[in-house]
């Protein structure tokens, strides 16, 4: 039984370390802010989750102790990472719309142009007189 626990812990730690490495590499190497968001919010979050589950398995298998700390950290991480990424993306889009920010050329290329009659959820600023520009008035 002990070797199965050791194998599970080793697999979870290696999987978590691989995800964290890939996520950190994406954070450093991707050119634009929107692309860099995927590294810490997707891969690194899954990597830390695997490391924390490996810690739970280790303490339960070797010491017979259930620990809630790792589970609470995982819940906090899985709740806060998407919310913070959403806020960073909103600020980034706002700064691009107002012209306060110029991004380097993206791997994905330019975003597609919106349809002429649609001005919400796009990279374009609302047109004067449209429902999006007068919604806050």
From TrEMBL:
Key words of the record: Membrane, Transmembrane, Transmembrane helix
Organism field: Sphingomonas ginsenosidimutans
Single Gene Ontology MF annotation: sodium:proton antiporter activity
UniProt keyword ATP-binding present: no
Annotated region (Disordered), positions in chain: 104-137
InterPro entries with a match to the protein in the record: PhaG_MnhG_YufB
Transmembrane segments: 6-28, 40-59, 71-89
Name of the featured protein: Na+/H+ antiporter subunit G
Repeat among keywords: no
């Amino acid at each position: 039984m002990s070797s199965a626990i050791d194998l599970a812990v080793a697999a979870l730690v290696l999987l978590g370390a691989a995800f964290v490495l890939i996520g950190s590499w994406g954070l450093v190497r991707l050119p634009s802010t929107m692309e860099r968001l995927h590294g810490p919010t997707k891969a690194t979050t899954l990597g830390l989750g695997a490391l924390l589950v490996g810690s739970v398995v280790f303490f339960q298998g070797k010491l017979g102790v259930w620990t809630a700390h790792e589970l609470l950290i995982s819940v906090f991480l899985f709740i806060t990472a998407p919310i913070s990424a959403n806020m960073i993306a909103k600020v980034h889009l706002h700064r691009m719309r107002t012209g306060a920010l110029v991004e380097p050329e993206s791997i994905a290329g330019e975003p597609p142009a919106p349809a002429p009659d649609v001005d919400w959820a796009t990279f374009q600023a609302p047109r004067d007189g449209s429902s999006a520009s007068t919604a806050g008035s």
